[in-house]
Amino acid sequence: xxxxxxxxxxxxxxxxxxxxxxxxxxxxxxxxxxxxxxxxxxxxxxxxxxxxxxxxxxxxxxxxxxxxxxxxxxxxxxxxxxxxxxxxxxxxxxxxxxxxxxxxxxxxxxxxxxxxxxxxxxxxxxxxxxxxxxxxxxxxxxxxxxxxxxxxxxxxxxxxxxxxxxxxxxxxxxxxxxxxxxxxxxxxxxxxxxxxxxxxxxxxxxxxxxxxxxxxxxxxxxxxxxxxxxxxxxxxxxxxxxxxxxxxxxxxxxxxxxxxxxxxxxxxxxxxxxxxxxxxxxxxxxxxxxxxxxxxxxxxxxxxxxxxxxxxxxxxxxxxxxxxxxxxxxxxxxxxxxxxxxxxxxxxxxxxxxxxxxxxxxxxxxxxxxxxxxxxxxxxxxxxxxxxxxxxxxxxxxxxxxxx
Length: 404
Prior knowledge:
Elements: H1 4-25, H2 32-35, H3 38-53, H4 56-73, H5 83-101, H6 110-129, H7 140-149, H8 152-173, H9 176-192, H10 198-225, H11 235-243, E1 249-256, H12 259-266, H13 268-283, E2 290-295, E3 298-304, H14 308-324, E4 327-328, E5 351-352, E6 356-361, H15 370-386, E7 392-394
Parallel strand pairs: 6-7
Antiparallel strand pairs: 1-3, 1-6, 2-3, 4-5
């Protein structure tokens, strides 16, 4: 989900930093039996979460890191530069880059199944190859290829290319999984590139799984507390905000005028564009206001520490900005992505606009709790709509507020 990726990128380096410091100083030496298998344990947890949340890419990434930790500690521990290690150090960044480029799929999707089979197959081949130096005795061409692929610079180049692909995917999507993969690649490079220590590698790969888990938590938080269409905080976030209000505050309810008619005339995609536009303007409200998606075409704005009189001035500014803002409907022949050489449209773009009605209220003797204030703001909203729409009405107003 957009927005969650930024937090994951900012926080994802902490587990890796802790693992690196612990590996250098030996702080967790006495807990080695636990730290050596934490990557596999977290892999099982992540796979269960991936199944529940229909995140196939997460399952493949967790399986890949868990299998890598098993190989580094077991079959490849005595042969860090053999053929098996070469297969592993080249396969991990390539598969992680592929995961970043793929769209999200459920676990049963054929692409996820194919990648899962690839991880299991390559892990088995790496374990079987172990410390072998050449793939076939007497075959100089294959021997030279094996020596070339085993060169440390080749592995570093593959990791750099994979990081570039993951960074591009993150820039395009800004989602938590792509943000987590950036740190997973860094952890895998520390754990798998030549010169590694098996115990330090286990810590780094365990940190990689922790980063994936942080991505799941952040994504789940965004889904629970933010609206995916408008990217505003959602109903649950509003309810928790209301519970924390005390003293002076104001609550405003906002409704898009004639939205059902708008949808029927222009279509649901145009309706979504209109809601995103309204949300973008509400997000800019001054006076300490915070906008929320309430549901459907309704929004709420909370002004902690403000009175309805002061908040109303800021709401008038927002109402006017929405009414004066025009946006073009996406035509059927309009490409989703901007071409390098855009062609002139066959007909001029059709500009449309929407308006909103707003009701605002604050605590008083008749309604002293946030829930009752919210209902009072809702009643004021309906008075605004009954008074002609495209206006702001305060709770207790006996007259309609004229349009600016």
